[in-house]
UniProtKB/TrEMBL annotation:
Pfam families: DAO. It comes from the Bacteria. This is FAD-binding oxidoreductase. InterPro entries: FAD-dep_OxRdtase (IPR006076), FAD/NAD-bd_sf (IPR036188). One of its GO terms (molecular function) is oxidoreductase activity. Keywords: Oxidoreductase. GO terms for cellular component: cytoplasm. The lineage of its organism: Bacteria, Candidatus Eiseniibacteriota. SUPFAM superfamilies: FAD-linked reductases, C-terminal domain, FAD/NAD(P)-binding domain.
């Protein structure tokens, strides 16, 4: 079945394969721009030139933020700072275990076997993932020995370690020319799951952090649930398992299938 779906993949060494017809691929830039446009229509104001530099507290309550262009009074701050989430939480005295880890992906020039219905392919033994991108393929792999840090320069020496397992799974990639390389940051928690909800002990700080490299697909649901929390006082899903306190309570459940 796997070979029928993707004739290019080597299946001889596979014990099994999964396919979900409802899975899809999204373009993060397009999705983000669509959200921005819709939010603007509904009266949201964005200030992309303004960095938050601190949180103003009155005792245990948030009363405002400091920014690069002066302070703003507010009783509510939502920490959605991605890899910078720990620093933002610290401004309110909250210890948030989110570390930045550099992650690479590389794209190829257009390839003859790539078509619109080619599914994303994840090789679970090596961790390499591949999906169609601008007529070619995007290849990604987590570097196991990457130390935490904010460096997003491309380590071109790493390319070979990505290409090798990719070509083993799809030999047709042997002929591919690399078009580009890119590195971004995963925002990783100790159990590779998000931290969602109010920060205990601080009034007015909401956490939407630590998506550990799988935040794009969770973003629409997270946005809705956090909005419900703020507007209705509670979310429509039980998010107790994703509370920050789970780490101190030793109730974290490690997500093993992060690529
Ligand atoms: C190579 C790579 C591949 C990935 N692939 C996938 C995938 O296939 N599927 C998936 O679901 N996820 C994927 N992810 C993960 C996904 O991109 C993240 O989980 C997601 O972007 C996290 O969203 P976020 O809004 O929490 O943070 P971000 O998208 O990082 O956004 C945080 C924002 O906060 C802003 N910010 C930070 N500090 C401040 C400040 N002090 N003041 C003002 N603004 C600030 C930043 O500028 C940024 O705009 C991938 C990530 C990488 C690096």
């Amino acid at each position: 079945d796997a070979r029928r779906k993707v004739p290019e993949i080597v299946v001889d060494d596979l014990l099994g394969a999964t396919f979900c017809a409802q899975d899809g691929l999204g373009n993060p830039h397009e999705v983000t721009q669509a959200y921005v446009a819709r939010a603007r229509e509904r009266g949201v104001r964005f200030d992309f030139q303004r960095s938050a530099t601190g949180i103003r507290m009155d005792g245990e309550s948030v009363v405002g933020i400091e920014t690069s262009q002066g302070p703003i009074d507010t009783p509510l701050v939502i920490n959605a700072a991605g890899p910078h989430a720990a620093e933002v939480a610290k401004w309110a005295g909250v210890d948030l275990p989110v570390l930045p880890f550099r992650r690479h992906c590389f794209t190829t020039q257009p390839l003859p076997f790539v078509h619109d219905r080619l599914p994303m392919i994840v090789d679970m033994s090596s961790g390499v993932y591949m999906h169609r991108e601008s007529g070619g393929m995007l290849l990604g792999l987590a570097k196991a020995d990457e130390p935490p840090g904010f460096d997003t320069s491309v380590d071109w020496d790493f390319l070979e370690r990505v290409v090798e397992p990719a070509v083993r799974r799809i030999p047709a990639l042997e002929a591919a020319e690399i078009a580009n390389g890119w590195a971004g940051l995963y925002e990783t928690t100790p159990d590779h799951n998000a931290v969602l909800g109010p920060a205990a002990g601080v009034r007015g700080l909401m956490l939407a952090n630590g998506f550990s490299g799988h935040g794009f697909m969770q973003a629409p649901a997270v946005g809705q649930l956090i909005a419900e929390w703020v507007v209705d006082g509670r979310p429509s899903l039980d998010l107790h398992p994703l509370r920050l306190e789970r780490f101190a309570e030793r109730e974290a459940m490690v997500e093993a299938n992060v690529i």
